[in-house]
Specification:
Blueprint (H helix, E strand, L loop, with lengths): L12 E6 L5 E2 L12 E8 L1 E4 L2 E4 L2 E4 L6 E10 L9 E12 L13 E8 L9 E4 L5 E3 L3 E12 L9 H5 L5 E6 L2 E6 L5 E9 L9 E6 L19 E4 L5 E12 L5 E10 L2 E6 L17 E7 L4 E12 L2 E5 L4 E10 L9 E4 L2 E2 L16 E3 L5 E3 L12 E4 L3 E2 L2 E2 L6 E6 L6 E7 L4 E9 L2 E6 L20 E4 L8 E7 L4 E8 L4 E10 L9 E7 L4 E8 L2 E5 L6
């Protein structure tokens, strides 16, 4: 193998071969070969259908020694030879180091580093191995830990919104062989999107002059979001340096997955320490019919986070159909930035800790009453994120359970706030009553689905869901936000008419809606459709505006001059 790390060059690496779904024990790592000065961990990890997604059986390397090792670099290559000329593929590759006793390493946020690759079979551009160099210090692989390298892929057909189904993936014309998994034998092509990799691992003492790395992930967990065209910034997780000495930032790992594969996307990323922007970049654009290979090589960044200061990575996505770049197209995407920094010591305490974000219910909320606590997080933007835990302990991508639950007074979660969680006896789902006597707040988060909520004041008797005209409405017909900027949540409702829709505004006082009145109408060529309303919080204005989706696009309306 080629030596790529410029600081340490092994002369005789011991090659440890991994196999699909088979943990590789280091056998004392270097003890079996006294002449070896490093380990070259290599594997071809074949993939098997897991629904419409192809997943690898993770290849793992266990550190059974008492000494620490370092992961210096990873070279990864995905086999696309079976992909047709009119097909696209979205693939992830992730690196995780966890205790050997950990049965599952798929809880979002545990990985050290992830990258994403978009491949299109009809593009002449070649996609070769991607190299990820983790610097002269590398990631520590401590005693009694395991290194896990895994990948997932999804194949998309030529027609829009037509990812290949599980049956289509299984029937792909490629040699298939049985592979033994922990849960039994499966039949898989050994080449269809297989992950081929090699990773260089060295003893820490041979590079003891170089500090090892840690990483933190922003946002904290794997989260899918649909950006609105007028959003000032997408949700992120801010991190604070809690150590008595400055923290040195050495690089960024960038992961961007366009979950709406057929939509084009352009991303802007800004790194801010304290209140000062220190770096910005525009990663390679996503185009469905073009190859955009992995974000090769960790993005170098030389910056310092002083004691008590913070670092945040802001990002925005502009999404559109490839043939109509001026027409916004709402589409879900998942972006994560891994902030790589030098660890200040060998202790287990991280220097960079998340701030402005917390788990609700002390991490013990079981939203669907299946016996497994679920991840439910409340971020600094007033968004509640949730996913449902699988019986095997795995966590999927989080989605917004409710958005922009915030006013100019900030989030509702203060020391004076009382959150009372109960299970609805009729739906068997969790709901919350939030009360703050100091701020005069009292409202409910009612369950819309297993992992989503809607806002309801404790007293909604003054303004019912029906107007004096007696027309009925649905939940999608209204949105909640602080539209007048007084610090309390209001309600905007759209009532459908024959040739126009009427807007009704209900002012809130913290525990109820005081009154409702008609404030305007909406009309246009999409009037015969029922639009979906959204509240958008504007931090710069410290209030919400509202927007609505229809076939014609997304339209934003500021109520400032109407209410």
């Amino acid at each position: 193998a080629d030596v790529v790390n410029s600081v340490y060059e092994p002369t005789n690496p011991r090659i440890v071969q991994g196999f699909p779904a088979t943990p590789i024990i280091g056998d004392g790592f270097l003890a079996d070969d006294p002449t070896a000065d490093a380990i070259l961990f290599t594997a071809r990890s074949s993939k098997f259908p897991n629904g419409p997604i192809l997943s690898t059986g993770s290849s793992m390397l266990f550190n059974t020694e008492k000494d620490e090792y370092r992961l210096l670099w990873l070279r990864a290559d995905i086999n696309h030879t079976a992909i047709h000329a009119d097909e696209g593929v979205e693939s992830d590759v992730c690196v995780t180091v966890v205790p050997q006793s950990t049965q599952n390493s798929v809880s979002s946020g545990e990985e050290l580093f992830c990258t994403h690759e978009h491949y299109y079979g009809g593009d002449d551009k070649s996609v070769g191995p991607s190299l990820f160099d983790f610097g002269p210090g590398g990631f520590p692989l401590g005693p009694n830990t395991k290194l896990d390298i895994a990948s997932v892929s999804k194949i998309y057909g030529a027609a829009r919104f037509s990812p290949l189904t599980e049956n289509m993936v299984r029937s792909r014309d490629a040699p298939a062989e049985p592979v033994m998994m922990p849960f039994g034998e499966v039949t898989t092509s050994l080449n269809l999107l297989a992950l081929n990799f090699e990773a260089l691992i060295v003893p820490s003492d041979v590079i003891k002059d170089h500090v090892g790395l840690r990483s933190v992930r922003s946002p904290l967990r794997d989260r899918s979001v649909v950006p609105l065209p007028y959003s000032e910034v997408m949700p992120f997780t801010e991190f604070k340096n809690v150590k008595p000495e400055p923290v040195t930032i050495v690089g960024l790992g960038i992961f961007r997955s366009m979950l709406g594969h057929y939509v084009a996307g352009d991303t802007l990323i800004r790194v801010i320490i304290g209140d000062k922007e220190v770096h910005r970049l525009c990663p390679v654009s996503h185009r469905p019919n073009e190859v955009s290979a992995s974000f090769d090589a960790v993005v170098p960044l030389s910056a310092t986070v002083p004691t008590g200061s913070t670092i945040r990575v802001e990002h925005n996505l502009t999404a559109h159909w490839p043939e109509t770049p001026r027409v916004y197209k709402p589409t879900p995407y998942d972006l994560a930035v891994y902030i790589l920094y030098e660890r200040s010591d060998v202790s287990s305490d991280a220097a960079m800790v998340p701030t402005g974000e917390e788990q609700l219910g002390n991490g013990q909320l079981d939203l669907n009453n299946d016996g497994f606590p679920d991840y439910v997080d409340y971020d600094k933007f007033g968004n509640i994120w949730a996913d449902l835990t699988s019986p095997d302990g795995a966590h999927d991508t989080q989605h917004t359970a409710i958005t922009t639950l915030i006013t100019k007074k900030g989030k509702f979660n203060t020391p004076a706030t009382e959150w009372t969680w109960t299970r609805n006896v009729e739906t068997d789902l969790m709901e919350a009553r939030i009360r703050n006597e100091h701020e005069n707040w009292c409202f409910y988060l009612r369950s819309r689905t297993e992992s989503s909520f809607f806002f309801e004041y404790c007293d909604e008797s003054t303004v019912p869901y029906k107007t004096l005209l007696g027309s009925t409405t649905k939940l999608a017909d209204y949105c909640v936000g602080d539209f007048d900027g007084d610090g309390f949540m209001d309600r905007l409702r759209m009532e459908r008419g024959v040739i126009r829709h009427s807007l009704y505004f209900a002012s809130g006082d913290g525990s109820r809606y005081v009154s409702e009145r008609k404030v305007g109408i909406v009309k246009g060529k999409c009037i015969y459709e029922q639009p979906k309303l959204e509240a958008v919080y504007k931090p710069s204005a410290q209030r919400h505006v509202f927007g609505y989706f229809s076939r014609c696009g997304f339209f934003e309306v500021d109520l400032r001059n109407l209410i």
